[in-house]
Specification:
single chain
């Protein structure tokens, strides 16, 4: 083969919902551990900048600031869910790293604290 042609298959499903899972999958698939730590905030800032501009242009009735506030807080949860999947599927996978472990611990701690407050 010449190597000039490529093909790709996206195994994700198509459906409505929070976009943070896709953002977490994308960042986790493109960047290494150090890059994730260094670029997380800038990448999320850019994502929300573009999302808010798109919402303003195509769905002005949607509260873009509210979407950002809710979704941004869900990024660590989406990342942790993917981390949980990877650990169960392939415990030696390169995506299991200290960045992912730190986010998972943070999410679990916050969920535990919220649960304790409600009890």
């Amino acid at each position: 083969q010449s190597g000039e042609r490529v093909a790709a298959v996206d195994f994700q499903y198509v459906g409505g919902g929070c976009g943070m899972k896709d953002v977490a999958y994308f960042i986790g698939s493109c960047l290494n551990e150090q890059q994730c730590q260094q670029q997380e905030t800038a990448l999320l800032d850019y994502y929300f900048q573009v999302l808010k501009a798109s919402l303003a242009a195509q769905h002005a009735q949607i509260d873009a600031e509210g979407v950002e506030q809710e979704w941004r807080s869900l990024f660590p949860v989406a990342w942790t869910d993917f981390h949980r999947f990877i650990k169960g599927w392939n415990p030696g996978h390169w995506k299991i790293n200290s960045y992912s472990e730190r986010l998972a611990r943070k999410v679990i701690s916050e969920l535990s604290n919220n649960e304790a407050k409600q009890a």
